[in-house]
Design brief:
CATH architecture: Orthogonal Bundle
Organism: Wohlfahrtiimonas larvae
CATH topology: Endonuclease V
Helix content: 40-55%
Largest sheet: none
Radius of gyration: 15 Å
Number of helices: 5
Shape: globular
Structural class: mainly alpha
Distance between the termini: 40 Å
CATH class: Mainly Alpha
Protein name: Pyrimidine dimer DNA glycosylase/endonuclease V
InterPro entries: Pyr-dimer_DNA_glycosylase, T4_endonuc_V
CATH superfamily: T4 endonuclease V
């Protein structure tokens, strides 16, 4: 599977480029689960990780991913981006994969370090529109 971003920091902290990329990439995991009819390899890891094993780690955390996708989608809309909601409803069939994940401070620090390393030279931060 190609790189799939799953961050644990607040979507509000992401630059526009990272926000839009995660919004687009996160649904690869539930779509792959649906495509494989739930027959996917699961991770033995118990803590958030980056790089090899990152996608596998999240395969049984569909509740976390769905909640995260909702936050990402809303943040995109709040910033005025015209994004399409693409969470696959069929993913709800795989109830054994609908686990949550509680983010730790160590997870946040690891994620913030990676975000900092990969920050574009000229990141965009669209301000929230005022109602």
């Amino acid at each position: 599977m190609i790189m799939t971003r799953i961050n644990v920091i607040s979507p509000a902290e992401l630059c526009d480029q990272h926000l839009l990329a995660e919004h687009r990439e996160l649904t690869r995991i539930p779509n792959d689960i649906v495509k494989r009819k739930g027959n996917v390899v699961l991770s033995r890891e118990t803590a958030y990780l980056l790089g090899a094993g990152h996608v596998t780690f999240f395969r049984n955390k569909l509740k976390f991913l769905k909640d995260r996708y909702e936050l990402l989608h809303q943040e995109c809309l709040d910033r005025g981006f015209k994004v399409i909601y693409k969470w696959p409803d069929e993913a709800s069939e795989y109830v054994d994969l609908w686990q949550d994940y509680v983010v730790t401070q160590a997870d946040i620090l690891l994620n913030q370090k990676r975000i900092h390393e990969r920050m574009p030279e000229n990141p965009r931060f669209t301000l929230h529109r005022q109602a």
